[in-house]
Amino acid sequence: MGSEIEDTAGIDRTWWKEAVVYQIYPRSFKDSNGDGVGDISGIIEKVEYLDALGIDVVWLCPVYDSPNADNGYDIRDYRSIMDEMGTMADWERLLAALHDRDIRLVMDLVVNHTSDEHEWFRKSRRGEDGYEDYYHWVEGDPDQPPNNWESYFGGPAWSYDETREAWYLHLFDEKQPDLNWRNPDVRADVYEMVDWWLQNGIDGFRMDVINLLSKPEGYPDGEIEGYPTGREHFVNGPRIHEYLRELYEETYANYDVMTVGEMVDLDVETANAYLGEDGDGLDMVFHFDHTFIDFGPDGRWDIGEWSVSDFEEIFTEWQTGLDETSWDGLYWENHDQPRVVSRFGDDEQYRYESTTMLATLLFGLRGTPYVYQGQEIGMTNADFESLEAVRDVDTRRPIEIMLEEGEIDSYQQIRDVVNYRSRDHARTPMQWSDGENAGFTDGDPWIKVNDNYTEINVESARSADRSVWWYYRELIDLREDEQTLVYGEYDLLDVPDPVYAFTRTLGDDELLVVLNWSDQEQSSSLSIEDGTLLVGNYSGIETTLSETLRPYEARIYRL
Ligand code: TEU
Ligand code: CA
User: Fold this and answer.
1) Among 224, 369, 422, 440, which is least packed, fewest CB within 10 Å?
2) Given 56, 65, 178, 208, the catalytic residue
3) How far apart, in whole angstroms, are the C-alpha atoms of residue 397 and residue 176?
């Protein structure tokens, strides 16, 4: 609790608002048995590390039994652990080890779809009694999908099933059929499973593409072209609020847990309908607005221009547009996004400065910050020199389509965009040391290790006097001490780009966040005479804000 503001009345304190969340993609975090795949025992080896970093909550990406068409986001059995990840007993040890250190555990909840190898789908495909309507089936011409909806991973959202002789819907891979939430039996089965995990003692859920659950009857064609066609029908679909409300009431309403909904295509108004007092029992959301900023005219596989004012506009809209009781999930990276320093910073000359500037922004905003594994040491994008090196279905599939359709003749034509955007950048192994395979595995890693591991790794970052790791450590501490950083109101200051400055105010307490988002010196256009510097990524600054900010300089003051 911050000493300055202990007396500030009227804050409704909530643990998940004050928490810093650390996201683990288990396949790439730490391998304990030399098979090249990260696992639960590997995470247990690193619990001490997580504690040293100071985070409060771990969000663990899927570890459930899965054939791994989409690395665990295609679940075969919700109640057992994938062989490669370990056993239920390992998972219980992990939960205990985290709880021993007062770290909470949030699990991934993937209930828009299952694997096509899930028992429900196997029964449904055979038309077994009681399971016929567990998924979205439409009969018809095997050459003509029921409508023009597209998959997020490219290509049509429908596949024809020879066994059932009907089309089934999959908004992601064909091995990820969408569950039919209109069917009350599906909902009851899901709620029972969710409750089972809650009873196992977890502290919440990150809810995968949770605003896609409701699909309209009749499956009307999409009218709006784009990524992907049909989205006006299945994003925030007709019964979405009813389903989420019911899920809440049947399950986590009865527990002290946190929920964060990953919501595609979400705007602020719609977020308010899901969140807060009049919402559906969801605590916070992840929106995507700031991740679309650098899409080119041809979409995701095209690199577009972005500017600091685009970011200011988006963040300000969310910071000021969310209702008093709504809450935001703040992130730069996750397992679906490239490395932020390579994207919005400078991963060469100013890797330290730009990574820490971006971190200062993340921690300076109102909401709960999420740190993705490797972000805390400033990991960068890798070079995927051939299609063979690419692992992600959501990179491979679109490229295969481009090749089939003759949009490109070879992988090399798209390599630069892959090296900019692919989800695989987040999935290269965590760089623990300058040892073999970055200390991730004794075996052959399932995906390439970034070549720069000899320079960028946890061991060297922790032993350096100044490093990205120590800066994150400082920000995490600061947020723990300063309630104003958690609860304070956000106000944008009117300074010329590429400087971005805003204040956070709680009662009488006022903090100033000022960032130079460029590789050039900039005038801050602000003059602070007697502030107290709380954190900064350059040394040798005291109480005044000098006119000139150095490249990617970031500071937080108490005014
Ligand atoms: O992601 C949803 C989602 O919107 C992504 O597929 C996104 O479109 C893509 O990564 C490009 O940015 C969630 C999970 O986070 C992702 O890993 C899964 O592949 C997907 O759902 C399906 O479960
Ligand atoms: Ca392993």
Assistant:
1) 224
2) 208
3) 14
